[in-house]
C-alpha cells in the first residue's frame, strides 16, 4: 500500500475535526488540480518544534502550539516570538502510530493571522503518542502564504511603534504646533461653512480568538494513565461570542499509583494477601485528585504462612496433650511482616502427648505425719527437643516412714555411742522408706534417748544458710547435734546434722522476667522460711525457679499508631502509622508489637497561596483626533464660529491614562516546597480620560493637561485576584 493510499484510508475512516478533514480533501483532489497551478504554488518544508512535551490524542484532533524553527525564505526577525497554532492527532494502523497535523494560523503578542489548513499538512510515524521538544516536526506548506501572514503580524507591530513615536513627537512640539483660529488671521474664514460629515463604513474589527479551560472538565484516560485538561475555543466578533466544544488540551497530568491509603486484601481460603492501590494525579494547583477506588495489584501477591516463634505451647491437662500454636503472617511489598491472625492451634504441627516423669524431682518428707511423698512433673517432646511443662509437685505416690536399728543382715545401721566415762552405751537408729523395692534412709543416725540421758540441741547449728534446702520438695530441714552433760558442761557426741524439724517453703512474687519476643514471662520468686532461730531467711531472692512455667501475655487488641514518619502527595500530608497489637504482661504493663503497616493519617491540604506584586507601572494614550476606535471613549463638542455664528459640533476620541502591575501566584507547601508552576497575571485599573476639544479644528493632546494616573489600590488588586479565581 503506497503512502497516498494509506493517507486517504486513514483520513476517510476516522477524521472528525473539520481542520483535519481538509487534509483528506487536499490529498484526494490534488490529482485533479491542473499542473500549471501546482507549479505556481511553492511548497517548502517548514520546520517546527513542540514547546513542551505534549501528548497527542488518538483519532480525536486536539489544539497544540508549536514554535517556528525554520521557514525557508523568511528572515529570523519574522519568526521571532511567533507561535504556530495547529491541530494534531494520531491513528493506529497495522500496529504503527501515524501522526497527522495541520497548521491553522500564526500568533504573536495577542495578534493572530489565520492560515488555510489545506496548505499546511504533515504526516509521520511516532514511537509514542506524544510530541517531544527534542524532535522537530516538518510541515509541507505554501511558502508565500506563510511569509505573507508573518509579514502582516510584524507590520502591525511596526505600525504600533510608529504610532507611539508620532505621539511622542507631537507631545514634544507643544503649543507651537497647535493650529490657531482662522477667524483672526484669514479674512475668508467668515464665509467658511462646516463641511458635511462623511459617511465612513464602520470597521467591524478583526475577530479575536482565545483558548480557555472555563467550563471544561479534566478527562481521565485510564488506558494511557493520564488526566487531560480539556479546553475550548472562544471567538469574539462584532461583540458576539461563540464557543466551541471542549476538547483535549495540552495540559496533562500523569496518573500515579498510591498504595498507602489502600490496605491489602486477605483471602484465608487460598492463604494469600494481595496489595491494592488507587490511581491519582496532582493537578496544576498541586492538589491530589483521586480517580479510582482501591484496585488489586495482581503482580503483588504474598503467601500467608504460619509463624510459631511468637506463640507459646498450650498445655491441655484434660487431654494430657501439648498443643503447638501459631499465628498467620505474610511479608508485604515493603518487606514488613504483617500478622493476619493471632495465636491459635497450629495446622502444620500436630499436638504431642504430655508425659509424667520424676526425673529432676525428689521425695518430700513429712516427719510429723510419718510419710514421704514422691514429686513429679510433665514433659513433652517437640521438634526433637524435650520441654518441661510444669514444676515438680506431689504425684500421689506415698512412702511410710520406718525406724530401723538393724539392717536385713542383722547389723546395726549406726554404730552405738559408747561413753566410757559414763560407762553407758547408747543405741542409734535411722528412718527409712522403701522406693520401688529399694530401701532408702531419709535421716542420719540418731541416738536413742530412751537409753541414756542424751539430748539434742540446735546450739551451733542454727545458721539457716548451712541448712539443707530442698527446693524440689518445698521444705528446709533444721540442723541439730547431740550431747550429754558432764558436770553441767555439754559434751557433744555428734556434728551438726539434719533434724526432723521441717520448715515449709514460702514464696512471694517479686517481679517478672519478660520475654517480649515470645510473648511470655517467667515469675521472679523469693523463696523463704520463717520461724527459724534467726527469724525469716531467704533461700532464693528474685530468681526464676527451676521448672517455673511460662506465663503467656494476654492479647488486648490492635490499633494504629503514628511512627514519626510522614510524606506528601502533592499538597496532602500523610503521617505514616504502624498497626500495633497490644499484649498485657503479667505485671499489668503493656507490650506492643508492630504487625504491619496501618493506613496513613490524612492531615489534608498543607499548602498556602503566596502572591507577590510587582512595582506599579503606567501607560497613556494621546488621541490623534480620529473619530472611532479610541480605547476609552469619545467626547462631544459644540460651538459657534464666524461672523454669522454658524453652529459647529464634533465628536472625538479621549486621551487616557492607566496604572497596572503584575501578580505572581505560587502554591507553597508547609515544608517550603513549591507545588506546580508559578502563574503571573497582569492587573490594570480603569483609565482616567480627558477630552481633547479646545477650539475650532484644534485638539489638546494629553501633554497639555494636568493629567494624572489612576490609583492602583489594594482594592483594585483584590478585584483582579477575584476575577482570576485566586480566592
From TrEMBL:
In the record, which residues are listed under signal peptide?
1-21
Region called Disordered, residue ranges: 155-190, 619-647
Q: Does the keyword Signal apply?
A: yes
UniProt keyword annotations, A-Z: Signal
Per the record, the domain of life is Bacteria
Signal is among the record's keywords: yes
Q: Where is the composition biased (Polar residues)?
A: 174-185, 633-647
- Return the protein name: Secreted protein
